[in-house]
Write a structure and sequence with these properties.
- The complex is a heterodimer of chains A (114) and B (114).
- Chain A is mostly beta strands.
- In chain A, a hairpin with a 6-residue loop joins strand 4 and strand 5.
- Chain A contains no helices and eleven strands.
- The termini of chain A are far apart.
- In chain A, strands 2, 4, 5, 6, 9, 10 and 11 form a seven-stranded mixed sheet that branches. In chain A, strands 1-3-8-7 form a four-stranded antiparallel sheet, with no helix packed on it.
- Chain B has 114 residues and is mainly beta.
- Helix content of chain B is 0%, strand content 53%.
- In chain B, strands 2, 5, 6, 10, 11 and 12 form a six-stranded mixed sheet that branches.
- In chain B, a hairpin with a 4-residue loop joins strand 8 and strand 9.
- Classes of the chains: A mainly beta (114), B mainly beta (114).
- At the A-B interface, strand 4, strand 5, strand 9 and strand 10 of A face strand 5, strand 6 and strand 11 of B.
Chain lengths: 114, 114
């Protein structure tokens, strides 16, 4: 049973560029959430996708956008990168119908903006 | 609004001694509570959760946590620490009555000394 996978593992970008991160959820899961974890901090919720729509959003600017595909995989896009966007980006998957809504996390993508 | 506090940035304990990592939370409704562990350059791994029922929850790798509603706390414990338990620990809360996202604490770094 494959867990949550993310690609790429590491990424280096320049200020002003755009980046796309990818996530495949755990088998059987239909909901994907994205988190940003800055160095030395806890994960911060960016947004959540279910049925190919953004269902909930944290306190992040519109430069952060996403997409969910029919196979439940998801992308996180960040435009006009800032130095402050450097962080570990975590994807978590879950099953919407589960009352408990336990989230399973991927290994993350380390983004460095120079 | 939901929030999680982990009052200790760092906890040091000798191998074989009991350990406690503290967590307090604030939610408007009834909480779901979680503990996750993060090893260097890795994503978050689930340890345990509190949903309802018994206030003492047992999880992976010998960890347990005690839910205290009156003190709004969910402290992580282990009777006998191992050097391999050294990692970053995150407490997270989800308000059953508000949204689907998790709110994470800032993390506590646990160092178990041989």
């Amino acid at each position: 049973d494959a867990g949550v996978t993310q690609s790429p593992t590491h990424l280096i970008k320049t200020r002003g560029q755009q980046v796309t991160l990818r996530c495949s959820p755990k088998s059987g899961h239909d909901t994907v959430s994205w988190y940003q974890q800055a160095l030395g901090q806890g994960p911060q919720f960016i947004f959540q996708y279910y049925e190919e729509e953004e269902r909930q959003r944290g306190n992040f600017p519109d430069r952060f956008s996403g997409h969910q595909f029919p196979n439940y995989s998801s992308e996180l896009n960040v435009n006009a990168l800032l130095l402050g966007d450097s962080a570990l980006y975590l994807c978590a998957s879950s099953l919407r119908s589960s009352e408990i809504y336990e989230q399973y996390f991927g290994p993350g993508t380390r983004l460095t903006v120079t | 609004a939901q929030s999680v506090a982990q009052p200790e940035d760092q906890v040091n304990v000798a191998e074989g001694n009991p350990l406690t990592v503290k967590c307090t939370y604030s939610v408007s409704g009834n909480p779901y509570l979680f503990w996750y562990v993060q090893y260097p350059n890795r994503g978050l791994q689930f340890l345990l959760k509190y949903i309802t029922g018994d206030n003492l929850v047992k999880g992976s790798y010998g960890f347990e946590a005690e839910f205290n509603k009156s003190q709004t706390s969910f402290h992580l414990k282990k009777p006998s620490a191992l050097v391999s338990d050294s990692a970053l620990y995150f407490c997270a809360v989800r308000d059953r009555n508000y949204g689907q996202n998790f709110v994470f604490g800032p993390g506590t770094r646990l160092s178990v000394l041989p």
